[in-house]
Amino acid sequence: MNFDEVVQAIKPFGRYQQRNYLLTCLLGIPASIHTMVTVFILATPEHRCSIPGLDNDTWQSQGPEHDELVRQMIPFDTRPSPHQCTLFKYRSLQTPDDVRNDTAKCSQWVYNKEVFDLTVISELNLVCEDKNLVTLANSILMGGLFCGSIILGTLSDLIGRKKTMLIGIAGQFCVALATGFISNYIAFIVLRFLTTLFGIGFYLAAFVAALELVGPDKRVLAGVLIGLFWCVGLFLILLLAYLLPNWHHLQIAVSCVNLLFFPYYWLIPESPRWLVSRGRIQEASAIVRHAASSTKLTCLRRSSASRTCRTTVLRRNSGTCLAVLACCFGV
């Protein structure tokens, strides 16, 4: 006998499984939001070199005189649009008609704010020679997913699915919230690494816990449906990014989503399959009894004299699962 037979005995996808499956699937939403928010906070707006000496220079036109000054100070590409990284070297506000066309790299930029008021790119000027730092940031984010899969994936086997989910939810909330208050590249990439590390950790734990709740014939469907909740997160981050064009505000709002899942400490149980694998039979049997009671199995009504688990004369590989049935059904 294996644990799948226990699940089949109490109904492979009863009310209890449906409730806890839905709760675990919902964790796909914050996991998706925290991963895909990168698309918006690391968006690169249109930009050009700032005109030297013009303190109130903006990407948006301030009138014909401003447009003419931009044409005199900034080289134009063939699109036509102002060059993003260079300006005329010898021209200045005092001598804008200087005919020399030598160009130099600039160190200050102005950005188009029609879509985003502020992104990490526009705040830290990660453009031109520093644009490779954006690629590095995205690579480090993917590194967080890789490390989180290994570290928290292993941790979920050691301490349980529920504890790993709670650690991931709380850890991601803390580092994501801190990210919204920093303006330093090194701090940003470190915190983003930790954000995805915690995120993939609790998502994988939730995925495994969700599949462990249902019977074998429902497992493929359960594995597909949890992915839909990831897609729900994609739509939510689109809405948040539309409403919050400043990346600091968006990041703080995204971190607060995790607060909705703190009550999981009381709402979801540990995976009974994991408890059985760790030899914690009494705890597993209590969860199985509760699941079976939700399906109104009358065979669970036992007298107080039959509360002791009969675990003797059991084969080593299947004994723990049979012990759970013995505890639950008094066999």
Brief synopsis:
The chain is mainly alpha-helical and 331 residues long.
Question: What are the key terms here?
Answer:
331 residues, 15 helices, 4 strands
Question: How many beta strands in the DSSP annotation?
Answer: 4
Work out the helix count: 15
Mean pLDDT: 82
Distance between the termini: 14 Å
Low-confidence stretches: 298-320
What layout of secondary structure does this protein have?
Blueprint: H1 3-10, H2 15-25, H3 28-36, H4 38-41, E1 47-49, H5 64-73, E2 86-88, E3 103-105, E4 109-111, H6 120-124, H7 132-159, H8 161-179, H9 185-213, H10 219-243, H11 247-256, H12 264-267, H13 272-277, H14 281-294, H15 319-329
Antiparallel strand pairs: 1-4, 2-3
Structure commentary:
This protein is mainly alpha-helical and 331 residues long. 58% of the residues lie in helices and 4% in strands. The protein contains 15 helices and 4 strands. The protein has helices at residues 3-10, 15-25, 28-36, 38-41, 64-73, 120-124, 132-159, 161-179, 185-213, 219-243, 247-256, 264-267, 272-277, 281-294, 319-329, and strands spanning 47-49, 86-88, 103-105, 109-111. It has a two-stranded antiparallel sheet with strand order 1-4. Strands 2-3 form a two-stranded antiparallel sheet. Helix 7 (132-159) packs antiparallel against helix 8 (161-179), helix 8 (161-179) packs antiparallel against helix 11 and helix 10 (219-243) runs antiparallel to helix 11. The radius of gyration is 29 Å and the shape is elongated. The model is unreliable at 298-320 (pLDDT under 50).
